[in-house]
DNA sequence: CGACCGATTGACGACCATCAAAGGTAGTGG
DNA sequence: CCACTACCTTTGATGGTCGTCAATCGGTCG
């Protein structure tokens, strides 16, 4: 596993290979994709409800979130996105965006034109399946969150979310030795899990007291993966990783 | 709008056309799909976590639900499926199923072999986009449920769910005059919205008292669509219907 | 008629929300 | 180098929405 910062194309391929086996030829085709690099600051909207973008956004560095707000102004974070993810892949087939995507840390983004992606899919039909599969895996994550937020108590819920992040970061090489960057604030964790910021703070304190996590600034450390997995009732089946990626 | 019971292929086409425009040729191709009809009773599992099916399931009559259960045995219903839906379309690209699908009323199902769907997609690449789009719309529904269950109070939450069902049934011609079949029990509504069965019962009583809904056995009637929409903060954008379908 | 399933009601309590304020920490600018 | 500011974290007090437990009612079907 490379520990040096990968190039945008390497990162994209590494992520895709965690859920779909790619041939050498397909990887070369992906490597030829034009990608436009952009840096953004924390708390910047990348895509907004109602937009009709002509490009997709690949996360290269930093975290972003997808969210929606109710009429009363309550925000639900629907998913967190980490390097290697393409949070708005759906815009390839859903013209009008129905969600918002924003950075929750400084980010480096890579924009890929829809037309380039479509062309790639035409020439390499297996890549159509790969991208489709990626959107299906994200749908599966939404479902797991629905279960998590709907049926599990706050403690388990937050433990589960941390497990998911560790797992998703690990497949792109960003969670070695149980340590990873986790720039989300407690308010953001709260909006993601559907509990209040105050209660999130209290639950995190208990998780720390129980020795399941420890934090230094935005670094999160998981000393005992099995214990945390158990506390969060975490089973990674829903991430649909292929075996080589989890090994 | 036809009121006679449509054939399986007519129903499938009607549903697909609500989110994707089909050419005459494409409709003919869909009409040629082999579909195996099966009748099942209430509360029967159709697909189970861990299965690796070689076919997809088209709902022809009745309601089904997708669900998951926590380690503590709490069930979260992740989505309700109505005639015209293919709840396990994802199995085309995610080999191992990570959810359960069960009937919540007597159902007539139509099974379509994966190989037939793949062949169809190869011959008609636009249909690939259509099916992909269908899975994206369902992902969008999961997201809206996440917002609904996470951030809205029980009253709004249930109103929203009823709005969604009315809308989705309407596009397949099953909700005329604000009346439709709604066979879900209160326990099932509870598991779908993440509140308890007892509280669901109380909220339904208030909704009835407020004149937003009335029920006779499994028939649900919505006397004032705009009032219910407002109570449920319902905006159908997330269903990504094309205009002709909503008119 | 009895069994079963779903709807309804009552009493009670807990988990978590709400409101408010105080500590910490990092970044900015004088 | 030290205010000053902004943001995040932490703490305390209070209460409400909703969960839990348990029982009854009502309709359906064999």
From TrEMBL, chains A, B:
Swiss-Prot/TrEMBL keywords: DNA-binding, Transcription, Transcription regulation
Keyword Transcription regulation assigned: yes
InterPro entries named among the record's database cross-references: cNMP-bd_dom, cNMP-bd_dom_sf, HTH_CRP, RmlC-like_jellyroll, WH-like_DNA-bd_sf, WH_DNA-bd_sf
Residue stretches spanning the membrane: none
One Pfam family recorded for the sequence: cNMP_binding
Chain ranges of the HTH crp-type domain: 152-226
Protein name, UniProt field: Crp/Fnr family transcriptional regulator
Organism per entry: Vreelandella neptunia
């Amino acid at each position: 596993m490379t520990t040096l910062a990968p190039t945008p194309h390497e990162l994209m391929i590494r992520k895709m290979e965690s859920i779909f086996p790619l041939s050498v030829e397909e990887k070369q085709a992906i490597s030829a994709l034009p990608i436009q690099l952009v840096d953004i600051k924390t708390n910047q909207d990348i895509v907004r409800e109602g937009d009709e973008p002509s490009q997709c956004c690949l996360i290269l560095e930093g975290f972003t979130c997808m969210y929606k707000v109710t009429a009363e102004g309550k925000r639900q974070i629907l998913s967190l996105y980490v390097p290697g993810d393409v949070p708005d892949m759906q815009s390839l087939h859903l013209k009008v965006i129905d969600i918002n995507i924003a950075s929750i840390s400084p980010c480096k983004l890579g924009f890929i034109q829809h037309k380039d992606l479509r062309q790639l899919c035409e020439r390499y039909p297996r890549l159509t399946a790969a991208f489709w599969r990626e959107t299906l895996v994200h749908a599966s994550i939404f479902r797991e969150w629905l279960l998590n937020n709907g049926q599990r108590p706050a403690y388990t819920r937050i433990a589960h979310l941390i497990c998911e992040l560790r797992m998703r970061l690990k497949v792109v090489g960003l969670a070695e030795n149980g340590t990873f960057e986790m720039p989300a604030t407690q308010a953001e964790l709260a909006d993601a899990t559907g509990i209040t910021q105050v209660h999130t703070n209290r639950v995190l304190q208990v998780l720390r007291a129980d020795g399941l996590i420890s934090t230094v600034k935005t670094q999160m450390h998981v000393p005992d993966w099995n214990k945390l997995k158990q506390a969060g009732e975490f089973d990674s089946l829903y991430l649909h990783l292929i075996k080589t990626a989890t090994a």
